[in-house]
From TrEMBL:
The protein's name in its UniProt record: Acyl transferase/acyl hydrolase/lysophospholipase
Chain ranges for the short sequence motif DGA/G as given in the UniProt record: 204-206
Residue ranges of the motif GXSXG: 62-66
SUPFAM superfamilies xrefs: FabD/lysophospholipase-like, P-loop containing nucleoside triphosphate hydrolases, TPR-like
One GO MF term: ADP binding
Any Pfam family: NB-ARC
Species annotation: Penicillium fimorum
Gene3D superfamilies (alphabetical): Cytosolic phospholipase A2 catalytic domain, P-loop containing nucleotide triphosphate hydrolases, Tetratricopeptide repeat domain
Length: 1048
C-alpha cells in the first residue's frame, strides 16, 4: 500500500459531528431521518453490534427540542428507536392541553401557554427510564461515548449559552443537572416558563441558534483546534438535521399575532443560518463531508405543538427520504461514516499535520526517485520481524499514539509501551512495524526478542547479518556484536531505522551486573537522528529506566474494542447477537485481549456457548484455572513461550520474587482475599518506605491499582486467579490461606460504629478468608475473626448473616474451649441478639435464659456477667413486645448496673433507654417523655451527640412528641437524628430508613403532603433494595403512600 493511497487518519479517525435544529413536535422528522441513516449504516457494517449515534459522533448538539434529542442520544446514550418512543410520549404529554390561550396578560407580560411542570415531569420520566437520575449533573465528570451540549439563551443578555456534558479548558461551566439543561434548552418563550440555574435565567436556545450548526462549528474548534481555529481539515463528516422548511408567511400587522408568532419566527428561522453556513462550507459539501437533511415539503403547516399530526410528519419525512436525490445524499453520508473506526482524540490536529507532512515528504521522495531512476539503485531497507501482520486485532488508538511520538519533530529516541501481560503490547508493536514500513519504505525495521539474554543475543546477530556487518576473529565475542550494531546504526549515512525490543521485562538485563560490567544492555542501545527504539514491557520500572518519561501505558480495553477482538477470533459470529451474554463474558475475562482470544479458541474447538463458558469460569475455582491454562495457537506470539493466560504472568511473578520479598508476600496475601477494595492496613506490617516500594513494584507490573489516596488496592481479577494457581503449583496455597486468616484476626479494624468505613471494607475479605479455610482443622484465631465479622454484620443490620456467623462461632468455640467458655458464651449472646433482630423472639428468650442461668452459676447471681445476661433477657422480652415483663426485669437491672458500673456507664444508660421504651409502648407517654429528657441530657454529656445510643434516645423522644401532637419539637429532633444517623450508618441502613419514615409521618401530619410523599417514596426505594418488595417493612411504606396519595 502506497502512502498516498488508501485510508488516512481523517478517513478513519476524523471528527463526526451532529447538529439538531429545534422545531417542537417536528423534531420527530429529525429523528426519522437519523433512524434511516443509522439503520443503513448498521446494515452496511460487517459488525453485528448495533451502533447508536453516541458510538459514531464525537459531538452531538441541539437547540430547543433538538437539544432534548441531543441529550437523549448523547448524554443518556439512547438508541434512535428508543428516543423516538420517548420523544413522541413526551410531546403528547406536554402539548395535549393548553393552560393559557392568550400569550400576554393585561399588563402586556408574556405568559406561558403550556404547563411547565408537565414538561419537567415528562423530562424526568425520560431520564429515569434511561437509567439516570434527573438530579445527575449534565457534566458529572465521567467519560462518555460522545460529547453533548445544548444551546439555551440568557434571558438577561440574549446571548447563547452552551450547557455541556464535558469540561472545556479555560471556561467555567454552569453546574446544570440533566433535567435543568433539558428544560433550559426547550423553555420556548410563549410556551413555557423561563428556567433558573443558579443565579441565571434562561429561555430556549432557539432565539439565538435554532439551527445550532455555527455553535457546533465554534465549539468543535474550541475543543480540537483551540489555537489555529482550522476546523475544516479535521472534520470527516458534519451532519445538520432540520425539522422541515417553514412556511413563507407575510409579516402580520396585528400586534398580538406579531408578538406571538411573527417575531418568534423571525428570531428562530434556521434556514438563513443554513445558507450562510453552506456558503462557507461549499468545498466540504462537494467533498461529501457536510450534509444537511431537512424535509423540504409537507411540514410547512405543522405547528410546533401539534402532536396529533404525527402521521403527517412521518409521511412527509418518508417521502423526502425516498426521493432519488436524497437517497444519493444519504448513501454518500453512509459511505463516509462507514470508514470511521475510532473516536477522535483531543490532539487529532497534531495527527493530521504529521500525516500531511509525511505525504509531502513521500511525494518529494517519489519525484526524486522517478526523475533519477536510472541512478537510483539503493539497497532495500532491512526487515526483520518474526510475525505476520495480525488482521484479527489491533488497537488503532495506541498505534496512533506511538506514531505521533515517533514521527514528529523533536521526537524522543526511545519510547516504552507498558501494560499488563496479555493486554496487547506485542500486537501494537507489530502493527507499528508494518505501518512504519508502509509510511517509510526506506526505513530499516528490526525486531529483537528481549525475553532473556540468549534470545536477545541471537536477535543482535540476526540484525548484524541483515546490516551486512562482517565479523573477524578479533571481534567475535558476544559483546562485540552488540557494539558493532550500535556503531553501525549510529552512522548518519545509514538512514532511517526502527528497533523494537519486545518483552523487555527484566530490569537486571539492562543495568550493570557481573555479566554486563560495562553498564548493562542500556549502554549498547544505538542513537541517531534518523533512528528510534520502541520497547514493550510489563514493568513500569523498566519502562521508565529505558525511556524516561516517554512511556505509553496500555489501559484496560473498553467493551467495544474487546467485542471486536472476540468477533475477529470467533468462527460462529452469531453468538455475538446476544449482547448481554457477550458483555458478561468479556467482563469475566476483564476485557484482556489474550484471555478473549484464548476463550474464543476454546469456544471454537468445543462448540459451546458464551453462557457455557461463563458458567465454567464462575463454577469451581479449579474449572476456571483449567480453562485459563488451555494452550492455544496464536501466530502473533513466540512459539517458545506458552500462551495460556494462567501462565502468562509466571515470568513476572519470578521477577517480583527476585526483586522484593515483601511485594511477593503482599501478592500471596491478596490472592487469599477478595481482589477489590483491599485495605493496605490489612497487609503484613512493614516500615512505611518498604511498604511503599513493595506496592509500587506490584503497581509497576499492573498487578494492583492504588485507590482511595493510597489507602486501598484493587488487584486484577485474572492475576488474582493466576497467583492462586501459582501458589497451588508450589504447594503454598493452604499455608498462605491460614496465615491470612490469622493476620485478619490480628489486624481487623476496630468494630465500633464510628470506624464503620474501615471495617466495612475489611468484612468481604474476612468472609473470603473464612470461606477458603472452612474445611481446615479448627484454629483459635478463626473464633475471634468470626466474632468480629458477625458483630459488624449486626451493626449493618444484616442479622441473618450475623446469625450464621455467630452459630459457627459457638460450634467452633465449643469444640476448642468447651460449651461454657467465655468465647462460647459471647457467641451465644450474639446469636440471641441476631434472633431478636429477626423477630425470632421465642428462640431469643430461650437462649437468653440459658445464658443467664450459665452466668449465675459460673460467676455468681450478683456478678456483672449475670446482670448483663439479665439485661439481654430484658431486651429480648421487649423485642417480643412483652413490655410488662420487660419493665419488671428492667427495674431489677438498673440498680444493679448503677451499683456495678456507675450511673454514667453506657450499660446503665442502655437499661434506662429500654425502660423508657417500655413506658412508651405501655402508653405512659408523660413518664416516657420525662425519662427521655433526663436520658438525652445524660447521653449527650457522657457519650456525645454522634453516638448511636444518643441518636436512639433522640428518635424515641421525637416519636413520643408525635404521639403528644407536639409536631414542631418532633420535626426538629427527627431532622437532626436523621442527619446524624446518615453520617454514622449511611442512608440505606434499616434504622435510618425507619427514622426517615417517622420524619415523613411528621411532615404529613403538619400538612406538608408533597414533602412527606417524596421522603416516604425515598424510604420505599431503599426498603425495596434492602429488604425486598414483599417484606413487611416495605409493604408498610406502600400502604402509607397509598393512603396519603389517595386521600389528597
Amino acid at each position: 500500500m502506497a502512502i498516498d493511497s488508501g485510508l488516512g487518519p481523517l478517513d478513519t479517525d476524523g471528527l463526526c459531528l451532529l447538529s439538531l435544529d429545534g422545531g417542537g413536535v417536528r423534531g420527530l422528522s429529525s429523528l426519522l431521518i437519523l433512524k434511516d441513516v443509522m439503520a443503513q449504516l448498521n446494515s452496511e457494517r460487517e459488525d453485528s453490534e448495533v451502533l447508536k449515534p453516541c458510538d459514531v459522533f464525537d459531538l452531538i448538539a441541539g437547540t430547543s427540542t433538538g437539544g432534548l434529542i441531543a441529550i437523549m442520544l448523547g448524554r443518556l446514550e439512547m438508541g434512535v428507536d428508543e428516543c423516538i418512543l420517548a420523544y413522541t410520549e413526551l410531546m403528547q404529554s406536554v402539548f395535549s392541553e393548553k393552560i393559557n390561550n392568550v400569550p400576554v396578560d393585561w399588563s402586556g407580560k408574556i405568559v406561558s401557554q403550556y404547563d411547565s411542570n408537565k414538561l419537567k415531569k415528562a423530562i424526568e420520566k425520560v431520564i429515569t427510564r434511561a437509567g439516570s437520575s434527573p438530579t445527575d449533573l449534565m457534566n458529572d465528570g465521567k467519560p462518555r461515548r460522545s460529547k453533548t451540549f445544548v444551546c439555551t439563551t440568557s434571558k438577561d443578555t440574549f446571548q447563547v449559552t452552551r450547557l455541556r456534558s464535558y469540561s472545556v479548558a479555560d471556561e467555567i461551566g454552569l453546574p446544570a443537572t440533566i433535567c435543568e439543561a433539558a428544560l433550559a434548552t426547550s423553555a420556548a418563550t410563549r410556551f413555557f416558563d423561563s428556567v433558573t440555574i443558579g443565579n441565571h435565567k434562561f429561555v430556549d436556545g432557539a432565539f439565538g441558534a435554532n439551527n445550532p450548526i455555527e455553535e457546533v462549528e465554534e465549539e468543535a474548534a474550541d475543543i480540537w483546534c483551540t489555537a489555529s481555529r482550522a476546523l475544516k481539515p479535521l472534520v470527516k463528516c458534519l451532519i445538520s438535521v432540520g425539522t422541515g422548511n417553514p412556511a413563507q408567511l407575510p409579516m402580520n400587522d396585528n400586534v398580538l399575532k406579531f408578538l406571538s408568532k411573527t417575531l418568534v419566527r423571525m428570531a428562530t428561522k434556521p434556514e438563513s443560518t443554513e445558507r450562510r453556513f453552506m456558503a462557507r462550507w461549499s468545498n466540504e459539501v462537494k467533498g461529501k463531508r457536510y450534509f444537511r437533511f431537512s424535509v423540504e415539503q409537507g411540514l410547512q403547516q405543522v405547528h410546533m405543538t401539534e402532536f396529533e399530526k404525527q402521521s403527517v410528519i412521518e409521511s412527509a419525512t418518508y417521502a423526502y427520504l425516498h426521493h432519488s436525490s436524497q437517497k444519493v445524499r444519504v448513501r454518500d453520508c453512509i459511505l463516509n461514516l462507514l470508514e470511521k473506526s475510532e473516536k477522535t482524540s483531543i490532539d487529532f490536529e497534531t495527527t493530521i499535520r504529521g500525516h500531511e507532512a509525511r505525504l509531502s515528504r513521500h511525494r518529494i521522495l517519489q519525484t526524486l526517485r522517478s526523475s533519477d531512476s536510472q541512478y537510483y539503485h539503493r539497497k532495500p531497507a532491512g526487515w526483520l520481524v518474526p510475525f505476520e501482520r495480525n488482521s484479527r486485532y489491533v488497537d488503532r488508538k495506541f498505534v496512533g499514539k506511538v506514531k505521533q511520538k515517533l514521527f514528529i519533530n523533536n521526537r524522543p529516541e526511545r519510547i516504552a509501551i507498558f501494560g499488563l501481560g496479555g493486554i496487547g503490547k506485542t500486537q501494537i508493536a507489530l502493527e507499528l512495524a508494518y505501518q512504519t514500513k508502509e509510511l517509510y519504505p526506506d526505513c530499516a525495521i528490526f525486531w529483537l526478542s528481549a525475553v532473556d539474554m540468549e534470545s536477545l543475543q541471537h536477535a543482535y546477530q540476526m540484525v548484524a547479518d541483515q546490516l551486512g556487518i562482517d565479523f573477524d576473529s578479533t571481534r567475535s565475542s558476544k559483546e562485540d556484536v552488540k557494539s558493532l550494531v550500535k556503531a553501525h546504526l549510529g552512522n548518519p549515512s545509514i538512514g532511517r531505522w526502527l528497533l523494537i525490543f519486545d518483552n523487555a521485562d527484566k530490569i537486571d538485563m539492562w543495568i550493570e551486573s557481573n555479566d554486563l560490567p560495562n553498564g548493562g544492555l542500556k549502554d549498547y542501545l544505538p542513537t541517531s537522528d534518523h533512528g528510534a527504539i520502541v520497547f514493550t514491557t510489563r514493568s513500569n520500572k523498566v519502562a521508565q529506566y529505558l525511556a524516561a518519561t516517554d512511556v505509553i501505558q496500555i489501559p484496560e480495553m473498553d467493551e467495544r474494542k474487546a467485542t471486536c477482538v472476540l468477533r475477529n477470533s470467533l468462527i460462529d459470529k452469531e453468538l455475538l447477537r446476544d449482547s448481554e451474554t457477550t458483555r458478561k463474558l468479556l467482563s469475566r475475562l476483564t476485557f484482556l485481549p489474550l484471555a478473549i482470544v484464548q476463550a474464543a479458541s476454546f469456544i471454537n474447538q468445543n462448540g459451546i456457548t458464551f453462557n457455557g463458558y461463563v458458567e465454567l469460569l464462575d463454577g469451581q475455582e479449579q474449572n476456571a484455572i483449567d480453562l485459563l491454562s488451555e494452550d492455544f495457537e496464536d501466530k502473533g506470539r513466540y512459539k517458545s513461550i506458552r500462551n495460556p493466560v494462567a501462565t502468562t504472568w509466571l515470568t513476572s511473578f519470578e521477577q517480583i520474587q527476585r526483586q522484593n520479598s515483601l511485594a511477593t508476600d503482599y501478592l500471596c496475601f491478596m490472592a487469599c482475599i477478595q481482589e477489590r477494595d483491599i485495605l493496605v492496613s490489612l497487609l503484613p506490617p512493614a516500615p512505611n518506605v518498604q511498604q511503599q516500594k513493595a506496592i509500587g513494584l506490584l503497581s509497576s507490573y499492573s498487578f494492583v491499582r492504588v485507590t482511595h489516596e493510597g489507602s486501598r488496592l484493587d488487584m486484577h481479577r485474572l492475576v488474582h486467579l493466576a497467583t492462586r494457581n501459582w501458589l497451588q503449583s508450589i504447594n503454598s496455597l493452604r499455608k498462605w490461606q491460614l496465615d491470612v486468616l490469622h493476620a485478619l484476626d490480628t489486624f481487623f479494624p476496630n468494630t465500633h460504629i464510628t470506624n464503620r468505613t474501615q471495617w466495612r471494607a475489611a468484612v468481604p475479605h474476612a468472609l473470603q478468608a473464612l470461606a477458603l479455610t472452612a474445611r481446615e482443622d479448627p484454629v483459635f484465631y478463626r473464633v475471634g475473626l468470626l466474632y468480629k465479622v458477625a458483630t459488624c454484620q449486626m451493626s449493618d443490620g444484616r442479622r441473618k448473616q450475623a446469625e450464621e456467623l455467630f452459630g459457627e462461632m459457638v460450634k467452633l468455640s465449643g469444640t476448642l474451649f468447651g460449651p461454657e467458655h467465655a468465647w462460647t458464651i459471647v457467641g451465644l449472646s450474639g446469636l440471641a441478639n441476631s434472633y431478636s433482630g429477626q423477630g425470632k423472639s421465642e428462640k431469643a428468650i430461650k437462649l437468653c435464659e440459658q445464658i443467664l442461668e450459665m452466668q449465675e452459676r459460673l460467676q455468681g447471681p450478683e456478678s456483672i456477667e449475670a446482670t448483663r445476661g439479665l439485661f439481654q433477657l430484658t431486651a429480648a422480652y421487649r423485642e417480643a413486645r412483652n413490655y410488662k415483663k420487660s419493665q419488671e426485669l428492667c427495674r431489677k437491672v438498673i440498680p444493679r448496673y448503677i451499683k456495678s458500673v456507675g450511673p454514667d456507664s453506657w450499660e446503665t444508660l442502655d437499661a434506662i433507654y429500654v425502660l423508657m421504651l417500655d413506658y412508651f409502648m405501655h402508653g405512659r407517654l408523660s413518664d416516657a417523655l420525662e425519662l427521655s429528657i433526663q436520658s438525652l441530657h445524660i447521653h449527650k454529656k457522657s457519650l456525645g451527640l454522634e453516638d448511636p445510643r444518643t441518636v436512639g434516645v433522640m428518635s424515641t423522644m421525637a416519636i413520643i412528641y408525635i404521639h403528644l401532637w407536639r409536631l414542631t419539637e418532633a420535626e426538629s429532633l427527627l431532622t437532626e437524628a436523621v442527619e446524624i444517623h446518615k453520617r454514622i450508618f449511611g442512608s440505606e441502613h434499616p434504622e435510618t430508613i425507619q427514622l426517615m419514615s417517622w420524619l415523613a409521618v411528621t411532615w404529613n401530619s403538619q400538612g406538608r403532603y408533597k414533602e412527606a410523599v417524596a421522603l416516604r417514596t425515598e424510604c420505599l426505594h431503599f426498603s425495596v433494595q434492602y429488604f425486598g418488595s414483599d417484606h413487611e417493612y416495605t409493604q408498610a411504606h406502600y400502604s402509607a403512600l397509598d393512603a396519603w396519595t389517595s386521600s389528597k
